[in-house]
Amino acid sequence: MIEFVYGAKGSGKTKKMIDMANAELETSKGQILFINDRDKYRVTVDTQIRFINSDDFGIKGEDELYGFICGVLGSNYDVDTVYIDNLLRILNADGPNDAEGLLKRLDAIQKQQDVKFVLSLSCDEKEIPEWVKNYK
Fold first, then answer.
1. Over the stretch 82-112, which tens digit does the pLDDT of each residue have?
2. SS3 for the chain, per residue?
């Protein structure tokens, strides 16, 4: 399953994703990853959740993020959910349409590995492409 959290900058997407991840601890049988490009959110993510700062690994762009996710999932079969906050900034994307290639790749992984992805997109609702709405 792939879910999206989207809205304009400052609309509370990160807080919502952190709340979702923390709440998921009660029902998750596996591990939860939370990927962000800033350390300031590390303290609000429960310590049972693996927080990963993408900048610590020099991740910028689709291929690097995809390769990193594959590496993490390949080395740990217990991952149930991967939250990726600030996706467009991590991808160095100009807008949500630039994330479609990654979505197709993640869709294949989630079907094969039974991993749920929750992705945040920083844009107004009117800028959300149809392919995003089809996953809702």
1. 999 999 899 988 878 888 889 889 999 998 8
2. CEEEEEECCCCCHHHHHHHHHHHHCCCCCCEEEEEECCHHHCCCCCCCCEEEEHHHHCCCCHHHHHHHHHHHHHHCCCEEEEEECCHHHHHCCCCHHHHHHHHHHHHHHHHHHCCEEEEEEECCHHHCCHHHHCCC
